[in-house]
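Memo to structure team: turn this sequence into structure tokens by end of day. - J.P.
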Amino acid sequence: MGATARFTCRLSETVQHYSLNWYKLGDDKQPKLLDLGKRKYSPTMLNATTFEIKISDLELNDSGTYFCGLICPSLKLTESNRANLTVTEKQLEAGLPSEETKPGLPSEEREDHGEILLAVIGVGLFLVLPVLCYYLFNLIQRRQEEEKLENENAPLEEGPPAVSVFTVDYGVLEFRAADNAQRAPQERFASDQTEYATIIFPPEKPVAAKGGKKTKKPKNCPSRAEPH
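Reply from structure team:
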């Protein structure tokens, strides 16, 4: 399959007016004209009496019997000898193993390789996990310290201003002087317990009169005074 086949047709003599066709016998043993318009058929005239047809990209259904036919002006058909074409699947070259026949490792060796691979993976995980845990622990510790510093350095939030509450205490102040001043003076009445005292003033010296002016006599002082 995929190869190229060539058929050659030779005439015994030169013919001036003719028509050359290529045929293939069908399943019913009847000749069928090839469709030379297809790309897989390439007819060629080598010389005046030799013709060739090339069939490329052979497939299994291209197997069959081929021949050429010459039609003269008298409408006489002259057929050439018939050639058989058998197309088979492409055979692998000798010495090249196919995918199915490629040599492989025995099953026991494959199992050993699998166990070794699992052991290597287990040892790797055993070595990597402690390092990973240590790294995560340090990362968490560092994060907590940073959050602590941020909280300490953060400004305190000011609450709402406090409302001053004033307490008024009432008291009664007594001012005796003012009270006495506001009160109307009470009438004083003499009582039987009134004590009397006699005050004696020394006599005044007489003053000489000037300019014929008369001197005034001193008024008599009261003989008694009331204590206040």
